[in-house]
């Protein structure tokens, strides 16, 4: 997954949490700009999307759909 997309998602999520008062503004800034968190989420989202794609492929094979 593209790290720029992950950073934007984290920025919007942190902004929403700060706006709701659930986290401090400094914590939101740390979440949105942490490169280790961005890399970890990129890896995790890539793995999840790969597993979802493989799951749909297995479902299509089992159901006899065109693959």
Query: Separation of termini?
Result: 24 Å
pLDDT averaged residue by residue: 90
The share of residues in extended strands comes to: under 5%
The profile of the biggest β sheet is: none
Task: Give the strand tally.
Answer: 0
Low-confidence stretches: none
Question: Helicity level, as a percent range?
Answer: over 70%
Number of helical elements: 3
Sheet/helix structural class: mainly alpha
As a whole number of angstroms, the C-alpha radius of gyration is: 17 Å
Overall, the morphology is elongated
Organism: Paenirhodobacter populi
Protein name: Holin
Transmembrane segments: 42-60
Keywords: Membrane, Transmembrane, Transmembrane helix
Written account of the structure:
With 67 residues, this protein is mostly helical. It has one domain. 84% of the residues lie in helices and 0% in strands. It is built from 3 helices and no strands. The protein has helices at 3-20, 25-33, 35-63. α1 runs antiparallel to α2 (25-33) and α1 (3-20) crosses α3. The longest helix is centred in the last third of the chain and has 29 residues, at 35-63. It is elongated and about 50 Å long. The two termini are 24 Å apart. 6% of the residues are buried. The mean pLDDT is 90.
């Amino acid at each position: 997954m593209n790290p720029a997309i992950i950073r934007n998602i984290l920025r919007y999520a942190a902004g929403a949490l700060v706006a709701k008062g659930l986290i401090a503004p400094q914590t939101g800034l740390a979440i949105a700009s942490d490169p280790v968190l961005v890399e970890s989420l990129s890896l995790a989202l890539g793995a999840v999307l790969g597993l979802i794609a493989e799951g749909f492929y297995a479902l299509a094979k089992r159901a006899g759909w065109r693959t």
